[in-house]
Amino acid sequence: MPTSLRTLPPRRLLAIAASVFLFGAAGASQAQEAVPAPAPHTPKDWNAPPPSPVCALGSFMCPIKPVSYEQCRPNAMLGFYDPTLPQDTTGRDTAITYPQAVSVDGSDQTLYHFNGNVKIVRYDQMILADNATYNDDTTAYDAVGDVRYQEAGTLLQADHIWGVNETNHVEADNVTYQLLQSHGNGTAVHADMLDKQHSKYTTASYSTCDLGKHVWEFRGKTITIDKDTGIGVARSATMRYKNIPFLYLPYFTFPVDNRRKSGWLFPTFGSNKQSGYYIAAPYYFNLAPNYDATLTPTIYARRGAMLGGEFRYLTPRNRGSFDFQYLPNDQVDGGTRYLYKFVDSTYLLPGWSFGTSINRASDRAYFHDFANDLYNSSIGILSSNAYIYGGGKYWSTSFGADDYQNVDAYLPDNVVPYKRWPRATLNLDVPIERWLEFGMNNEAVAFRKNDLATQQVEGNRLDLYPFLKADFQGAYWFVRPKIGYRYTAYDLIDDYDYKAYSSFDPAYQFARDGVTPNAKIFNDRTPSRSLPIASFDTGLIFDRDTNLFGNSYTQTLEPRLYYLYVPYRNQGNLPLFDTALMSFDYWQLFSENEFSGADRQMDANNLTAAVTTRLLDDNGVERFSASLGQIQYLKGSQRVQAAYQTLIRNADGSISVQQPTPTDNYTSDYVAQATMQLNDDWKAASSFQWDPQYRRPDLGTFSIQHRLGTDGIINFGYRYRRQTPNQNVAYLEQFDASAVYPISDRWRVLGRWVFSKLDHRTLEALAGVEYENCCTKIRLIGRHYVSSTNPGVTGQILDATTRNSVMFEVEFKGLGTTSPQIDTLLHRDILGYQ
Fold first, then answer.
1. Pick from 366, 365, 410, 369: which is nearest to 273 by CA?
2. Global confidence as pTM
3. Tens-digit pLDDT profile for residues 612-638
4. How far from each other are the two terminal CA atoms of the chain, in whole angstroms?
5. Of the residues 30, 409, 482, 630, which has the fewest C-beta atoms closer than 10 A?
6. Is 709 inside any structural domain?
7. Does 273 lie in the same domain as 384?
């Protein structure tokens, strides 16, 4: 069903016209993905701010915290706030005025004098004062002595206040004001409430800091507030920090609520080795509730002027965005440089939709030269796709295409995946009986390559897999048999008889003639493969009550047997389009195929035995889990291999060619994994693989995470993997530690260190400090990282380019940040960061 029309998420921004070249940060400003702004703060929120939500341990990416005013002091002006008054002005014009006081003089019968604890209420308006007069004919009033005023969206204290109810006009002298739809507040020599929605403050200040203790503020000759648009305007203003002026703003707009508004975003500047110093000044266009745009002119000292932009839209049937960067004349390399990204999701018909993601760069060095956001520089391949999706109760289908572009100057083109132009899938899952189900997984793909120099084989592939599966189960047992038949056929085209090779190893070379490693002649233009696949999965579930460390748990014991039979088929005449050997892990013990893609189907006469135990608390939450399993190869060898030959780096650094040989083990590695979270502050996870033939570990990982209160986190991880089962060479061995440590309510130190023992070098080091008070947040980050590498065959980094960067960010709460890139970087680098 189509979604209802929604507004795009609001965007926090600071509108600065005259200060474009005065603010900066490390990293070029690109259009940022909008994050929904928090709900407006009500007076109740300020008095008792709710704690920020804590990200669950183990979460891969924690949500960004909304702007928080938790460290602000309770607002003294709220002592007279009346929450029972309406929060809008709709009924003000027809409302009756209700005055009260200790004494009233109405001898004039038109002009009333009120003395002592005066209170005048009219719908959303309320005046408290020592003395006041009210004219019943003109609806004019005048109040003096400790005057306090409330209306929808505003609190005000003044020495003197006067106005006319009929015209909704109010004026006041020596004013302190508070905006209820934001944390904005300030002072003014004179305030003029022009009507219900518009007000003007003369010789005024504005800040979101605590009343009377402004860490930062701007002072203007005039400040006007428009509640209709949610925009404030300051003229002839100076920006101050700790009462020290640092920026003159002849005209300055700012948000007074959480709605989006047009204006200049914080400009940023920085430098990189490839393009020199740069400065970017984005401007945001709030075009309509359901679409907006951002234009970002950027000047690079070495390369020239670039224009970037983003357009976002949201309708009842589709949503998406278009991003671009365009440099018409590169002064270093010449020519036009560009990057564009288009993302769209469209509702077509009930059960049908269209989705696309198109990403394209002008050349392979684009990210190397212009990726100033510190992590896009590591992108090696840009992927694009466009698909029509359909689905019903028992079926799903898709039709579209996938394309890839090499954007790494150090990678050869033969490592780029095959284009899938087009690709179609059809999946069925039809119940026959309550316990019996018929299914099909079907795929048709045309594989094409742009890399003509290597003469890689191209062709079409059809993969059909119908199956029947049953599910019998009770409270403590299950039996799930399955039988299927897989048929895969190819139609190789053009130069199918050229020598073709695996496209997944950059060391492979391709040529029409001559001896090359990993060569294979395809002498059959229409090869095919067909075979049955049968499996039988069964298990038991036992449970008992137990106690551990004084806590009661339910412990389970879950033995499981899985048998898989797949007859051997010689697949050496089949090309490798999108297939590779998957990493062996616990879930591979129960998989029908150890290869991704359809170009290889493993042979099997395997029996897997595994056991799992869990601890569940009284609420059913899993606090501990451990599993152990192993495959028994009943026929003694695994004959189907992915590659034709493999290049191996020997211990002395030389390269040798290893012919693929079937595994001669009768058992797989022992595979174990465990997770433990006995409380909400600690979580540990580990996985381990032991080779029984060589009596050594093939893989080991360990991670532990500890939460410190609501604002701190400590992570430690270790990763080890051996290169091949019969090579005593480590492929990867790394330590990874990161932390966010709160020193106090306002200060946090943070860092990350990734060290490769195999390479004896630091892959990434990050250290920084973060300070937050009521109305500001400041971050200073230093980072050392590997930006590009040339991996060896064993995984070692043969040569690498490293970079250093220093990033500084200042956030004036309620206005915006100078560089939102830092928040994105920390969320990506530090697990559990908020």
1. 369
2. 0.76
3. 999 999 888 899 999 999 999 998 777
4. 35
5. 409
6. no
7. yes
Between 509 and 92, the higher pLDDT residue: 92
Percent of the chain scored above 70 by pLDDT? 81
Tally of CB atoms within 10 A around 804: 9
- In angstroms, the CA 541 to CA 95 distance is 70
Say if residue 234 is in the same domain as residue 300: no
DSSP per residue, 500-537: ---SS-TT----SSS--TT--B---SS-EEEEEEEEEE
Q: Do 89 and 149 share a domain, yes or no?
A: yes
CB 407 within 8 A of CB 364: yes
Q: What gap in Å lies between CA 552 and CA 15, rounded to an integer? A: 58
Opening angle at CA 328, ends 324 and 329, nearest 5: 140
Residues 6+ apart with CB under 8 A from 577: 418, 445, 447, 459, 461, 597, 599
Q: How far apart are CA 322 and CA 102, in angstroms?
A: 65
What pLDDT, on the 0 to 100 scale, is given for residue 269? 67
Query: Is 526 within a domain?
Result: no
- Write the pLDDT tens digit of every residue in 350-409: 999 999 999 999 998 888 788 654 445 567 789 999 999 999 999 999 999 999 998 887
* Same domain as 128, residue 87: yes
Rounded to whole angstroms, how far apart are CA atoms 651 and 803?
Answer: 30
CA 385 vs CA 109, 234, 421, 464, 528: distances in Å = 80, 47, 10, 23, 28
Among 377, 411, 445, give the residue marking a domain's end.
411
The pLDDT tens digits for 528-568 are: 999 999 999 999 999 999 998 888 999 999 999 999 999 99
Burial pattern 691-725, b for ≥16 Cβ within 10 A else e, equals beeeeeebbbbebebbbeeebbbbbebbbbbbbee
pLDDT at 470: 97
Residues 302 and 193 in one domain: no
CA contacts within 13 A on the Cβ side of 557: 4
Burial tier of 504 (Cβ tally within 10 Å: 0-12, 13-18, 19+) = middle
Q: Indicate if 286 and 373 belong to the same structural domain.
A: yes
What is the overall mean pLDDT for the chain?
81
Amino acid at 569: R
Nearest to 687 by CA among 829, 588, 772, 771: 588
Number of domains in the chain: 2
Q: Which helix (H) or strand (E) holds 140?
A: strand 140-151
Quote the pLDDT of residue 254.
Answer: 84
* Type of residue found at 224: T
**CATH number of the domain encompassing residue 189:** 2.60.450.10
Q: Where are the beta strands (DSSP E) in 456-501?
A: 458-470, 472-473, 477-493
Nearest to 122 by CA among 78, 170, 70: 170
263/564 Cα distance (integer angstroms): 63
Residue 491 forms part of a structural domain? no
Print the domain residue range for 336.
264-411
Q: Reduced to 3 states, what is the DSSP secondary structure of residue 366?
A: helix
pLDDT at 250 over 60: yes
CA distance 143 to 707: 55
Compute the distance between CA of residue 38 and CA of residue 22 in angstroms, rounded to an integer: 29
Q: Are residues 101 and 218 in the same domain?
A: yes
What is the rounded distance in angstroms from the CA atom of residue 663 to the CA atom of residue 669? 12
What is the pLDDT averaged over residues 161-189? Answer: 91
Same domain, 116 and 145: yes
Q: Is residue 116 part of a domain?
A: yes
Q: Which pLDDT score, from 0 to 100, does residue 455 have?
A: 63
CB 155 within 8 A of CB 147: no
What's the pLDDT score for residue 800? 59
Q: Which of 393, 411, 429 is the last residue of a domain?
A: 411
What integer pLDDT is reported at residue 16 of this predicted model? 30
Give the pLDDT score at 378. Answer: 62
Rounded Cα–Cα distance for residues 396 and 399 (Å): 11
